[in-house]
Amino acid sequence: MTDHAVVLGAGIAGLLAAAALADTHATVTVVERDRLPDGPFERRGTPQAPHLHSILSRGWLTIEELLPGFLADLAARGGDVLDDAHLGARIHVQNGPYTFNRTDPVADPAALTMHLVTRPFVEFHLRRRVAALPNVTITDDHDIVELAAAQPHRITGVSISDRRTGHTQALSADLVIDATGRGSRTPLLLDNLGLGRPPRRSFTVHGVYYSQRITIPDHDTFRERLILVVPPTAAGRGGLIAGENDTWTLTVAKHTNDPHSPPTTFADMLALAEEFVPPHIHPALQRAQPLTDVMVHRYPGGTWHRYDRHPHQPEGLLVVGDALCCLDPIHGQGITMAALHAHALRTHLRHGRDVDPRRFHQALAAVTAPVWAMNQPPGHTTTRSVKHALQGRLIRWGRHKILQSADDIVVTERLIRVVNMIDPPQRLLEPTLLARVATHHIRQTLTRYRRHPGANTHA
Ligand SMILES: Cc1cc2nc3c(=O)[nH]c(=O)nc-3n(C[C@H](O)[C@H](O)[C@H](O)COP(=O)(O)OP(=O)(O)OC[C@H]3O[C@@H](n4cnc5c(N)ncnc54)[C@H](O)[C@@H]3O)c2cc1C
């Protein structure tokens, strides 16, 4: 035993895992392939960073639990915080034809707090905070070469190579955490050790993001700071979000089967923005200025490596974040999942430093399964359980009916809580909420009937 933990990858999942490990391990080394910038700047290893990132409230709360005081620190360094009861005035969310109540106050604004900062800004401040922990070292500009297994069925370290000199060194560790993201090579490295690859599930969406950082000099002419719209017709989505230092991110996300030509200029982006940004913001948007070119990011779909079901899962190796499960990012769940994985790691470490990988990955599977089910495109399900498939369909049907009633603030708040993972999806099916939804539908039907007594009253 070396009392040394090694984390592979200094993205958000790796940094949060390192924070969890720092409580129990004498030393923690985070190995990162990129040379890490000394500021909130984009870098090669996180190509998603220029694109719209909106972290769910559950994610923020979990990050704060792992690193107390982090959110106050983040707010002090820039970036708006949305934490008042009149959230609706600052957030414009539209899902197809459904509109949400934007005028009445929510009952529990603290649970729905949101920080408006860019992804490089969050990552940089997380990195600063984790690097300041006395027992954590971040070794950047190093690549992972292979996993070491000095004992059968036990990972005992990793060899890494310096990207400048090519020098390779072996790091022994009693725990190795893979947080290398979507391109994780762990399935291959396990195969090389004769342990085989974990089973995996996947779905394809051929997604593409187009984003541009912009400045909106007239941003005081409107109150909205986060706009997320799924237009009723198009397959794509649009988003505009404020970030630190008066920068905004404008994003259009599509699936590549979209027949429209892709945006390549600021003018193209503005034309698309006008399709989803509320009209009262158009004049301010017309005077906006681009800060970057249009950035493009493509992704094939989602993949979940089922380490929980791997028959030859070795001791001493855990996998977290996108390396375990990468989702379709349009639902904005990835960072929250990374935070929940780190939280689960901390819980398991409290039972002793020798974490049982099967139990750990099973715990992550329990967190991942409902998110995975909701993340897939409509009509696509990889679940083999009839019960879960039916549950998923019921929740989707219920959500449709509930969305139709979202001009009621109680319904709006419950939807926002579920989407932000504060409440589980089952809370949408609670009898008191369904009674409100039913009353709403009856009232709407009666109104329609009174207006047009002879007409068909079906919605
Ligand atoms: C376009 C897009 C938009 C997104 N929007 C959102 C959003 O709105 N909200 C949200 O919550 N999530 C969003 N996500 C998902 C989110 O970015 C990730 O889920 C989250 O950052 C967790 O990532 P990670 O740390 O697991 O992996 P990554 O962020 O990919 O980090 C992996 C790290 O490992 C390093 N690495 C890789 N290979 C090696 C190697 N061989 N050796 C050493 N280091 C290595 C990389 O350089 C990188 O630093 C989005 C993703 C995309 C693609």
Topology diagram in text:
Blueprint: E1 4-8, H1 12-21, E2 27-31, H2 57-66, H3 70-76, E3 80-82, H4 87-90, E4 91-95, E5 114-116, H5 119-131, E6 136-139, E7 142-148, E8 157-162, E9 168-172, E10 175-178, H6 186-192, E11 200-215, E12 226-230, E13 237-242, E14 248-255, H7 266-276, H8 282-286, E15 289-290, E16 295-305, E17 317-319, E18 325-326, H9 334-349, H10 357-375, H11 386-403, H12 409-419, H13 431-451
Parallel strand pairs: 1-2, 1-10, 2-6, 4-12, 10-17
Antiparallel strand pairs: 3-5, 7-8, 8-9, 11-14, 11-15, 11-16, 12-13, 13-14, 16-18
Helix pairs in contact: 1-5, 1-9, 2-9, 9-10
The structure holds flavin-adenine dinucleotide.
Flavin-adenine dinucleotide binds at residues 8-14, 31-34, 45-46, 48, 51-55, 59, 143-144, 179-183, 209, 297, 299, 321-323, 329, 332-336, 338.
Quick structural summary:
The chain has helices at residues 12-21, 57-66, 70-76, 87-90, 119-131, 186-192, 266-276, 282-286, 334-349, 357-375, 386-403, 409-419, 431-451, and strands at 4-8, 27-31, 80-82, 91-95, 114-116, 136-139, 142-148, 157-162, 168-172, 175-178, 200-215, 226-230, 237-242, 248-255, 289-290, 295-305, 317-319, 325-326.
